[in-house]
Structure formats: C-alpha cells, structure tokens
Amino acid sequence: MSLLVATSGCVSNHRVSPWGGGSLPPISAFAAPSDLEAQLAAVDAETGALGLRKTLELRGELPRGGGPVIARGYEKTDAAGRIAHAVRVATAHGVVLAIGPFNEPEVDDRHAELVSAHAQDALASADDTVTRALTDLNGDGLPDAVLRNRRGTLELHRIGPLGSNRYDVIMFVAPTELADADGDGRLDLVGRAEAAEGDPIAPVLVDTATFDGGRYTNATAGARAFHAQRADPQPARSKNPPPPPDDATRLRGAIERAWHAILAGRPRARVLEALGGEPVPAALRAAFDRHRARIEALPVLDADKSGNAR
Q1: How far apart are CA 234 and CA 257, in angstroms?
Q2: How far are the Cα atoms of 80, 95, 307 from residue 304, in angstroms, in the given order?
Q3: What are phi and psi of 202, to 5 degrees?
Q4: Which is it for strands 15-16 and 113-114: parallel, antiparallel or unpaired?
Q5: φ/ψ (deg, to 5) at 46
Q6: HSE (CB half, 13 Å, CA atoms) of 122?
Q7: CB 3.0–4.6 Å: which of 74, 141, 158, 296 could bond 52 by disulfide?
Q8: What is the dihedral of CA 98, 100, 101, 102, to 10 degrees?
Q9: Pick from 92, 38, 99, 54: which is nearest to 70 by CA?
Q10: Is the pTM value of this prediction over 0.85?
C-alpha cells in the first residue's frame, strides 16, 4: 500500500476493487445472490494463512438499503519483532478494500492501520464529540474507512458496495488529524508541520483540506477562511497588556501568521515584506531564514469560483 499525501500537489487516485485491474465481470455477477458471511469467511481464511490476528472490527451501513459493510484491522509480528498491519473491508458483494501486510513493515508509508474513531480537535472546534469510523465523514453518501501509517499520516477511503476509492488530497502538510476546520459540521483533514527538535523558534505550521468535488483540498473557501482567521493577530483584551514577548516568541508568531496569510490567498510579496521587516537577533537568524525559505517556497494556490485548485 502506498500512503502518500501531496505536499505540493495532488495524490494520484487509486481504485481498489474486487475485480483488480481486469475487465468488469458479466452482469450475472451483479445479480448473483449476495452473502456477507461467505465474504467474511474468505477473509478469515486468507488472513489466517498470512498469520494475521484480528485487532479491530467496525460495522457500517451502505446507503439506500445496500446492506452492511464490515471493516477489519489485522496485525502480525515478524521475526524481528516488528508489527505489520493489514486492512480488509467487505460487503455482501465481495472484498472491496484489501491492504497489507507488506514484506517491509519498516517502510512507514506502506504501513496501514485501521482507525476506529476520531475526536474533533480543539484547534477547530470546542466540540468533544467522537465520530465513528466507517460512517459518512464528508456527506458524499458513502461510508469512509480511515487508515493511518507509522508517521501518523491519515488517508480516507470511500467504500461502495462493489469497490472503494482513496480520496485525493491536496495539502502542504501531511494530514494527521480530523477536525471541523470550516465549521460546516463535517470533519476535515488537518496537518501540523512542527519544527525540528532544538529549533529555537519552533513555529507550528498548520494546513487543512476540506471536502470538495470528491477530493480534499486546501484551495476551498472554507480552508482559506481557516487560514485567514489565523493570519490576523488577535486584538488585545486587556487594558494592561503583557510586555512584548521575547524574540523567539515574537518571531514564531510572525512566521505562523505569514504562513497562514499566504495560504489564505494574501498577496505573497506583501506578506514576505512584512515578515522581512521583523528584527532578528543573530542567535535566531539561521532558524528564521530556514522558516522564511519554507514560506517563500509555498506554491501559488489559485482557485476558481468552485474552489478547485488550478
């Protein structure tokens, strides 16, 4: 499995279906009596032969009376003590998603673990509700399975009665959280690019992608509003505001605001000019220049009226 997330472009969409890469079956296959228990028995036989142990089972429902869908997470430990995960999702018509285990479990982006539930993050919402996986997370009418690799990167799969698709994602930071970033009541993808250990400024650079036209993208109006809110400094609420922060704190805030301002669609030259006007002590110059270079390297993210990147 490839758990790749675009940091400057779109992840290629991949279809996983019970028919593999071959031609579609005859119409009789669709009309044949369905049997979910038979599909699960086949999964049990296959995963048992691979030495996999079931660790999680989630149940959902397909729309329009399409029947139940079951997702199972598995793991096994190899001779070196490394844990490899696998995921199987079945409907009455067949196994619609089958990922792992791989022979190289140390490769983080090929390591798929089924995720059971998601608590909305305080970054975007004060709501502490938990959304169960294998439900419709984005309102497109089909349940979604959420997978996570060793780095914590998430990927979402749309589950249908006869197959599944991984949603394309356009973000500049790998998504590791689900939160309602745009306030529409649905969970969006959120990622945080935290600074390296020992960085004296240590900004937290956050990106988000909301659902749009069958994919998740940071070019939507909702995603831009998320960044615009964080690009503007909060007004002072006290008649006796605290003294100016130390240089590292001040520069951290300036870098984070510049990041959000560009992702909100603000004029790049003006944003970089403001950032360049910050006084930088010699001890913080190298770290500041690294972060400024990262912001300068952000691609221009234009959007048409539908919110699609172009």
Answers
A1: 11
A2: 51, 38, 5
A3: 55, 60
A4: unpaired
A5: -70, -45
A6: 0
A7: 74
A8: 140
A9: 92
A10: no
- The pLDDT value given to residue 119: 58
Cα 310 from Cα 303, distance rounded (Å):
6
Residues 6+ apart with CB under 8 A from 273: none
**Res 264: pLDDT:** 96
Q: In whole angstroms, what is the distance from residue 40 CA to residue 256 CA?
A: 48
246, with CB counted inside 10 A (0-12, 13-18, 19+), is exposed
Q: 10-residue block means of pLDDT along the chain (310 residues)?
A: 37 44 49 77 96 94 93 90 92 95 76 78 48 84 93 93 95 93 91 90 96 94 96 70 84 96 95 95 97 91 44
Task: State residue 31's pLDDT score.
Answer: 47
Closest CA to 158 of 168, 149, 150: 168
Residue given tokens 């992702």 in the structure block: 263
> Considering only CA atoms, which of 114, 149, 111 is closest in space to residue 133?
114
* Nearest-angstrom CA–CA distance, 17 and 202: 43
Check: CB of residue 189 under 8 Å from CB of residue 167. no
pLDDT for 116? 86
Residues making up the chain, counted from first to last: 310
Closest CA to 73 of 92, 53, 91: 53
Phi, psi angles (nearest 5°) of residue 45: -65, -45
**209 vs 219: CA distance, rounded Å:** 8
Residue corresponding to tokens 């969409």: 13
Burial (CB count within 10 angstroms: exposed 0-12, middle 13-18, buried 19+), residue 113: buried
C-alpha 274/C-alpha 271 separation (Å) is: 5
The predicted pLDDT at position 296 comes to 94
Cis status, amide bond into 25, omega within 30 of 0: no
Q: How far apart are CA 45 and CA 48, in angstroms?
A: 5
Instruction: Name residue 154's amino acid.
Output: L
Q: Report the pLDDT value the prediction gives residue 175, as an integer from 0 to 100.
A: 95
